[in-house]
Automatic annotation (TrEMBL), chain A:
Gene3D superfamilies in UniProt: 3.30.70.20
Ranges for domain 4Fe-4S ferredoxin-type: 1-29
Cofactors required: [3Fe-4S] cluster
Single GO term (MF): 3 iron, 4 sulfur cluster binding
Keyword annotations from UniProtKB, A to Z: 3Fe-4S, Electron transport, Iron, Iron-sulfur, Metal-binding, Transport
Upper taxonomic lineage: Bacteria, Bacillati, Actinomycetota, Actinomycetes, Kitasatosporales
Taxonomic source organism: Kitasatospora kifunensis
Known function: Ferredoxins are iron-sulfur proteins that transfer electrons in a wide variety of metabolic reactions.
Name of the protein described by the UniProt record: Ferredoxin
InterPro entries: 3Fe4S_ferredoxin, 4Fe4S_Fe-S-bd, Fe-S_cluster_ET
From TrEMBL, chain B:
Pfam name, any one: p450
Protein name: Cytochrome P450
Organism: Kitasatospora kifunensis
Region entry Disordered, spans: 1-32
Record's keyword annotation contains Transport: no
Key words, A-Z: Heme, Iron, Metal-binding, Monooxygenase, Oxidoreductase
Length: 65, 401
């Protein structure tokens, strides 16, 4: 799994950080999404899928590689 | 394959009355959801708009940039005369589309990010304990709205903004007027103006005496006028007052009416995070629907909508949608309710939701821990539900312990 984020779309709701804190963080100055791990290990992939699903701004795109 | 739009004869009106269960959406909307999930409805001003009731359709519209939140677009539906009056003034970012919406919202997203909000936990816990100390010292019964549910989020939002809490009678009265569905437009305008004027003056005073609140930080950015900051502050102050307050009180009531769920939560306090999501879903206090207008022709759930068509999105029926939440009419604190739409969806989704979640988790778990004998001190039938307000809840919640 390859994770892509779009910081221009992000509205800072923070669902991704709640779902998968090992993979997503928020930028200190404005709360915009930061990607910590673009290739999350298998055990985190379900949480990453949930993060992408509940992201209100559709700022997370998953590529199956 | 899209089918033709149904006959444009309005069958329903908004707002629709509640049925026997005051926690459930109005029966007329539930019936629409079952029989014609995207249907026509007439509003107070005689206009006819689309009522959207399914989870998948509500989510689709809120995530689709072809639907605008900007009230200057022709056909934008207003839920009340007061809402139309407010839209004729200077809009805040909730009534703007991107990129202007994103520019203004991003001035605040840092203040509501997960780790900033989490850092407030000890302070919010302290406030919750103090309010309960005072309430318990006052006897063995109280109005939970007045003594706990309202002051908790009010104190927190005042702290965050840098607004003196001593003025709370004034803000709370202004909030009540702004959130009445049936308020006179002139009263709405007056409440709006006096709140913005007050906050703009307070903002001016921060130029010479800054603190670490949001108003001071917006001053320091140097991008907005005092009036623009006042207007943004008004949005945060009103949203911070009434939403969490009503969710707290209504959640306590819903748990008292579902004693097996209340017991479950007392026995398993670690369920609180999921229980708050379930209560948000089950109660959906933004009960009047969200307004959008199509800016292009769009096919939604097999129905053709035209550019200029107004759309009312019912979060409450979407959050009871059996396709998404089987058995959704039941409160189940161990359900996975994370896909609920109580905070909306799309780029306008509630900015303050991390704060709301934390406040609700602290408020409910502290009440359960400190008041083991909590019970309703009035008959359920006597309670006054907030049908006439844009944010649902109870006006008072008499409890004893």
């Amino acid at each position: 799994m390859l994770v892509h984020i779009d910081q221009d779309k992000c509205c800072g709701a923070g669902h991704c950080v709640l779902a998968a804190p090992e993979v997503f963080d928020q930028r200190d100055e404005d709360g915009i999404v930061v990607l910590l791990d673009a290739r999350p290990p298998a055990e985190l992939q379900q949480a990453v899928r949930e993060a992408a699903d509940v992201c209100p701004a559709a700022a997370i795109r998953l590529e199956m590689v | 394959m899209a089918t033709a739009a149904p006959t444009p004869t309005p069958r329903l009106t908004a707002p629709a009355p509640r049925g026997a269960c005051p926690f459930a959406p109005p029966p007329a909307y539930q019936q629409a959801h079952r029989e014609e999930p995207i249907s026509r409805i007439s509003l107070w001003d005689g206009s006819t708009v689309w009522l959207v009731t399914r989870h998948q359709d509500v989510r689709a519209v809120l995530g689709d940039a072809r639907f605008s939140a900007d009230a200057v677009n022709p056909g934008f539906p207003f839920l009340s005369a007061g809402a139309r009056e407010l839209a004729s003034g200077k809009p805040t970012f909730i009534r703007m589309d991107d990129p202007e919406h994103a520019r203004l919202r991003r001035m605040l997203t840092g203040d509501f990010m997960i780790k900033k909000v989490e850092a407030l936990r000890p302070e919010i816990q302290r406030i919750a304990e103090e309010l309960l100390d005072k309430m318990i010292a006052g006897g063995s019964s109280a109005d939970l709205v007045r003594d706990f549910a309202l002051p908790l989020p009010s104190l927190v939002i005042c702290l965050l903004l840098g607004v003196p809490y001593e003025e709370h009678d004034f803000f709370q009265e202004c909030s009540r007027v702004l959130l009445r569905r049936d308020a006179d437009p002139a009263q709405v305008r007056a409440a709006q103006d006096s709140l913005v004027d007050y906050l703009a003056k307070l903002t001016e005073s921060k130029r010479t005496a800054p603190d670490d609140g949001i108003l001071s930080r917006l001053v320091a950015r140097g991008e907005l006028t005092a009036e623009e900051i006042g207007s943004m502050g008004r949005l945060l102050l009103v949203a911070g007052h009434e939403t969490t307050a009503n969710m707290t009180a209504l959640s306590v009531l819903a748990l008292l009416r579902n004693p097996e769920q209340l017991e479950r939560l007392r026995e398993h306090p670690e369920l609180i995070g999921g229980a708050v999501e379930e209560l948000l879903r089950y109660l959906t206090i933004v009960h009047s629907g969200l307004a959008r207008v199509a800016t292009e022709d769009v096919t939604l759930g097999g129905v053709e909508l035209r550019a200029g068509d107004g759309v009312i999105l019912m979060l409450n029926t979407a959050n009871r949608d059996e396709q998404e939440f089987p058995g959704g009419d039941d409160l189940d604190v161990s359900r996975d309710a994370r896909r609920h739409l109580a905070f909306g969806f799309g780029v306008h989704q509630c900015l303050g939701q991390p704060l709301a979640r934390l406040e609700l988790q602290i408020a409910l778990s502290t009440i359960l821990r400190r008041l083991p004998g909590l019970r309703l001190a009035a008959s359920f039938e006597e309670l006054r539900f907030r049908n006439e307000m844009l944010i649902y809840g109870v006006h008072e919640l008499p409890v004893a312990w």
